[in-house]
Amino acid sequence: MTESSSNPTRANAAPLTASYPELVGKVVVVTGAARGMGAVFVEELARRGVHAVGGDIDGDGMAALADKINSGAAEGAGRVLARRTDVTDPDDHDALLAAGLEEFGRVDHWVNNAGVFPQAGFTDIPPDQVTATYQVNVNGVVYGGQTAARHLRRHGGGAIVNMASVAGVRVRVTRAAYNSSKAAVRHLTSCMAVELGPDDIRVNAIAPGFVDTEMTRWVREDPAALDRALSTVPLRRVGAPVEVFGALQFLLSDSARYITGAVLPVDGGSQHV
Ligand SMILES: NC(=O)c1ccc[n+]([C@@H]2O[C@H](COP(=O)([O-])OP(=O)(O)OC[C@H]3O[C@@H](n4cnc5c(N)ncnc54)[C@H](O)[C@@H]3O)[C@@H](O)[C@H]2O)c1
Predict the structure, then answer these.
(1) pLDDT in tens, 60-72
(2) Among candidates 33, 40, 47, 42, which has minimal Cα distance to 13?
(3) Any idea which residues carry the catalytic annotation?
(4) How far does the centroid of ligand 1 lie from the alpha carbon of residue 180, in Å?
């Protein structure tokens, strides 16, 4: 029995060995990168010699993470540039791109990862929750995608990856605003893939299931909620952010060069339950 299967609340965060040499020296923008999956993405990219531009509304947290990664970096590692970024503001995306271009001279790929996960029974959802959720989870992807696409068009192509969720296809009760926002991300991914394909810009999404981050900590700490959540995971354990990174680096790599408009589930099988 593996450690993760003996304790389903403990994700299998063992390092992944796969890396893609063609990504070394490339520059990837990641939004929502101060913590959670985004933080693991920039750290794992840098470890593999890929530069990352991390944008987060928590500017101090983003800066602290970049300092930590850069100061402990091995020879040949990529560097992480931090910028305070609010994904609901289109100008912030432009500023994030400009910062990456100024620092590294290029931006090759873009990851729309920032998201919020509010809770309320359907009839109790306050109007500002709907607005805030859609602004971050949907508008943030539109604005980030626009900035990325305008640049990548000039750059000769590249990859965009949007963060969807299993909640975009399976109902998670008391999460209607979130679920529907992630359904929108799935369809946006199709729209973007079709319009941007002729410019050699590939647009894909990752649909994580139940992943071990701050966003889901309350579930792991509530035994009844945890039981319910794990009953919808055929692999019967929580996922680790690094397991989502495995899908991300594949989608950014040349191995995925004929893949666009795909939504790749990384969910232990949850989409089927
Ligand atoms: N954790 C899961 O189980 C899970 C499952 C499916 C999908 N997702 C999605 O994956 C993505 C990352 O989730 P996570 O679990 O790492 O979340 P997290 O809450 O740990 O981190 C989200 C990050 O986004 C940042 N952010 C929030 N609003 C922002 C804004 N307006 N502008 C810029 N940054 C902002 C936060 O400061 C934070 O650093 C999200 O889109 C989330 O919806 C997560």
Answers:
(1) 999 999 999 999 9
(2) 40
(3) 165, 178, 182
(4) 16
